[in-house]
User: Fold this.
Amino acid sequence: MMTDAEIEQENAAIAKAYKDLLKVSYRTLTDDDKKLIRKAFDVAVEAHSEQRRKSGEAYIFHPIAVARLVAKEIGLDATCIAAALLHDVVEDNPNYTIEDIENLFGKTVAVIVEGLTKISSMQKDMEDVSLQAENFRKMLLTLNDDVRVIIIKIADRLHNMQTMDSMRPDKQIKIASETLYIYAPLAHRIGLYNIKTELEDLGLKYTEPEVYFDILNKIKESKEEQDEYIREFNELIETSLDKEGLHYTIKGRPKSIFSIRRKMMKQGVSFDEVYDKFAVRIIYKSDTANEKFLAWKIYSIVTDHFRPNPIRLRDWISSPKSTGYEALHITVMGPKGRWVEVQIRSERMNEIAEKGYAAHYKYKQGDTKEDSLDTWVAKLQEALESNETNAVDFVEQFKLNLYSKEIFVFTPKGDLKSLPKDATPLDFAFNIHTEVGMRTRGAKVNGKLVPLSYKLNSGDQVDILTSDSSKPNANWLDYATTAKARGKIKSALKEDKKSIGEDGKEILRRKLKQLKIDLNEKSVNELVHFFKLKTSLDLFYRIGIGAIDNTMLKSYASSRSNALVSFFKNKITRRANVSKEELEKEEVTSKYDLLVFGAEEEKLDYKLSNCCNPIPGDQVFGFISVNEGIKVHKKNCPNAVSLQSNYAYRIIQAKWIDSSQQAYSAQLILSGIDNIGIVNDITKIISSNMHVNIKSISFKTNDGLFSGKLNVIVKNNSMLNKLVTNLKKINGIDKVSRV
Assistant:
């Protein structure tokens, strides 16, 4: 029990924390604002009066700390400060409902508190990764209610990370991993760079404590030397800046522990070899009209004194990042031959960089320009609403799009579009409009034709060539990187498969009729079992592309009419007793029966690893081991994370594919007598043969004789045979042979 003196002392500390909260607010609070915050504070104190945190302190210090972060670090308004104070009330105290909050504080606060309560209840069951991903997706759906929900949630997470010392180690690791996996990328995307940095550093502190403290101590050791270096750097340019009558401050800023660690890993270097461990920030006073002019003026002063690295100039003033970040970054050769990153920002830009979203609103009153965060939320909604992808894919895709650096490309008319780094012309096409994407035939970059897999660079001008007859094919998934493009291509391929399946169904009806069998549910089920397929659509599709031909159907018919029938019945009844899991395993195995590696999808020798025993159909990757060649691991194998982080260069893409749907290339040699129009006849035959593509074609004529070489892509052998038969029928063709 606490003594009266201790209780009094604690109450005084709570009152002081409350007063500080009002002082630190980044906005000027009106009397109404103060009343609202006071009321929220009183409700929170009462609701949490019985609660203590793991560390033993009164629970109310947590909501106050979160509200303080929301007010000071993020700069949100009184409504959000009140919501932050109340964020755990409904969840922790059964006497309060969302309705009560709405009656007391109005609709907006209630919507935010409800969003936060939803997220907390989801996190209770976040043990399993796929569950966690699904919950993360739901959590992002709360963006729909109000983006401030996510912002307060990030502040809540930051305070939890700052006060996690008294938790069990396993809890610490779980929370820290989730922070690195979800919250740091979110903070980054919303433009909360300071918070992102702190979340990453704290995440590292609990996931890899030795590494964290090692780097932290080294930073402390070299602090004096760094301060001295930055003082020397400043002295050299201050005179010139003062001469121009500029008002500015220069700050040195060490790089975050997390980013130093990332550099060490990425470049395989030690702490001492990381060359730009700190940045110099020049923050200048300016009115809006002269901002840009002054930034470049400071740039020219800095580069008069120090030689710039031309490859490392980043101009985010002319085209800000989509998070709203604006600054000019240059890396220069400073004193003692060391590279230093210099960041040039006005006070306004600096505030936006530190507070992100909130500062935007402060500067954008009366400005109707679409807010980049709103655009981002709209894009995110689109990705969330397309349920094509499963949750884990979605999270991975989402993280890719979050962390990826951006590039800026131009439309033919000169409009600027922002895309993630490594985007291709296909991503650009789908970014303009789904219809443009679907009808893409080719692309020109800076006036030159490029393949659809071409990686775009900032400043490229992209012109998409479309045609009504073009439609997505499976290769497009190798070329598209953005979530939107991939989602649309996948659903188009499904549609395509369906339409081929419809044709296939009619062909099957005809062929079965000749074998005196009716096409009905029973015969379809038997055929699906006979060919070890998964669904009737797979069956119709294979008939449609000719993968199941007459001979195969005949062998099915004879199996029906002879002794195999009894065997078949047994098999079907036996299967009924087999567990559902085994059945699915068998179906998947029979469907995805071929393992291919790399972007080229080559067949290579491999071994299945014992640690996770992958089976056909699993998501896998190849690992090039020293003694045993390629070992195949599941993507969620317990060793996957360490292999992928420590030996990224030895990882090779791998996937199981359905061998009957795999496209193969074959070369045909033709010879005969040269006729007028023979080339036309040949190409006509090929293009009228469904699902055959020409990869390359060359013809020669010599004294009335004709010879040609064709490289074609076909789905299977029977298609190729059909093509050869049809080519032989052409007038003048004497021989067609496969190489």
Q: What stands out?
A: The chain has a mean pLDDT of 81.
